[in-house]
Design brief:
The protein has about 425 residues and is α+β, with helices and mostly antiparallel strands. The chain has helices at about 5-25, 70-75, 90-95, 100-105, 130-135, 310-325, 335-340, 345-355, 365-370, 375-380, and strands at about 55-60, 60, 80-85, 110-115, 125-130, 140-145, 155-160, 170-180, 185, 185-190, 195-210, 225, 245-250, 255-260, 265-280, 300, 330, 365, 395-400. It has ten helices and 19 strands. Strands 1, 2, 3, 4, 5, 6, 8, 9, 11, 13, 14, 15 and 19 form a 13-stranded mixed sheet that branches. The chain has a two-stranded antiparallel sheet with strand order 7-16. A two-stranded antiparallel sheet has the order 10-12.
Length: about 425
């Protein structure tokens, strides 16, 4: 065989060996041969939520709590999450609420407990005393989710950023979340603004802007959540999640975080985990004359002095949000009827409401007129639509001891 042929053979083998070595070091090349789309594995497939890409950033952190106007202007109005580092450290609840204290002072209170610390909204709810929950929560797959009862409101406080400007008029609930840790929530959004304060443990949050809603399949519309398994994301079933940028946040004891309404989030909790969240209707305007002129607000306000549960502001806010999002500045009767039809409301009722809302009789209602109309009267105009908002009801059962009480802190929970 002549020298030219041998040279060609050597070059070919050298090239193949080099390619083999590169593949061993860096994985198969996709530059020369395109893999068929149906055979490609999407980033993050069957991996925990957030594995498809690194976070685009962390939630902003402040070492102080801003005044209400700054909070509204910089965070509520633009829908921007923020973490207040150490904001709850001077609360009595943070300083006192260990298990012994809770058992001795509030043990007789009846509380609501969820089955399963990895959130599954089809499972049952139980009722038991707080003392009983404290006996079993370290060794059982249960999680307390309870609207704060009046006796406990003396020791949990409202942050300064909510003490005026209209925030105290739109408070809806204060909810205690209590577990032994290892909990995981579903990926969901709330149609409310939320400040969550952590009394004990750690929380890690994956947060996604509401603007990403087209990529996130909320396949349980009634509950506002995605049924994706947050431990093993099936990218073939939820392909939109491949394209969602996300933000990270980590909470430590005494931290509080603001989660804007309709922001998607998933929460993982570790260690003895006790948190309280304040839900309030999203505000579209700030009422500055309710704030003290030239006076510094106190660090906290007592929950015991406040009224919770008025959902009328939430109802009006959701109507405003709809017309704002679709770009309808001047609302006609036909626009209002179309909105009412979406929720199977009373059309004759809507026509009468239009007459009251159209104060200057020009045939349209502006977005500003919606916000300026007295909220209690506004809700009465749409009695067929005003109803309590919340999660679907689940079976309510008496609690019975499971056969096994072994603690599994690796178990997936809310």
């Amino acid at each position: 065989m002549d020298s030219h042929v041998w040279s060609v053979i050597v070059v070919v083998f050298t090239t193949l060996a080099s390619a083999s070595n590169m593949e061993a070091m860096h994985g198969p090349s996709t530059n020369s041969v395109d893999m068929p789309e149906n055979l490609k594995i999407a980033p993050g497939h069957l991996q925990p939520l957030g594995s498809h890409s690194p976070p685009v950033g962390s939630v902003a952190i402040l070492d102080h709590v801003p005044d209400p106007l700054t909070f509204f202007r910089d965070y509520v109005q633009p829908g921007k999450p923020v973490l207040f580092r150490g904001a709850a450290k001077n609360m009595k609840a943070f300083q006192r609420w260990n298990d012994d204290y809770l058992r001795n002072k509030y043990g007789e209170l009846e509380v609501e407990v969820e089955e399963g610390k990895k959130e599954n909204r089809s499972l049952s709810l139980f009722h038991m005393t707080l003392a009983r929950f404290l006996e079993i929560y370290n060794t059982s797959d249960v999680y307390m989710v309870e609207s704060m009862q009046d006796p406990m409101k003396e020791e949990f406080m409202l942050l300064k950023c909510l003490l005026c400007g209209g925030f105290t008029d739109v408070l809806l609930d204060a909810v205690i979340w209590f577990s032994s840790g290892g909990t995981k929530s579903v990926l969901h959004f709330d149609a409310l603004d939320n400040i969550n304060c952590l009394m004990d443990g750690e929380k890690e949050l994956i947060m996604m802007d509401r603007k990403e809603e087209s990529h996130i399949d909320i396949d349980n519309v009634d509950g506002n959540f995605c049924e994706v398994d947050v431990d093993k994301v099936d990218m073939t079933k939820y392909p939109g999640l491949q394209d969602v940028p996300w933000y990270s946040a980590k909470m430590m004891p005494s931290d509080c975080i603001f989660i804007p309404y309709k922001w998607f989030h998933q929460v993982t909790s570790r260690g003895r985990n006790l948190a309280v969240n304040i839900w309030f209707a999203h505000m579209w305007k700030f009422t500055e004359d309710t704030c003290p002129d030239g006076k510094e607000l106190p660090e906290f306000g007592s929950l015991a002095d406040l009224v919770f549960g008025n959902s009328n502001a939430q109802f009006r806010g959701e109507m405003f949000d709809y017309f704002h999002s679709v770009g309808i500045e001047d609302i006609t009767e036909n626009d209002l009827l179309e909105y009412v039809r979406m929720d199977d409301g009373d059309e004759e009722e809507a026509k009468e409401a239009m007459k009251e809302l159209d104060i200057n009789r020009d045939g349209v209602v502006t977005q500003q007129e919606l916000l300026d109309f007295p909220v209690e009267r506004f809700a009465l105009l749409f009695s067929s639509l005003t109803k309590d908002l919340g999660y679907p009801e689940r079976p309510d059962n008496e609690y019975s001891e499971p056969e096994s009480m072994e603690n599994d802190n690796g178990h997936d929970e809310l």
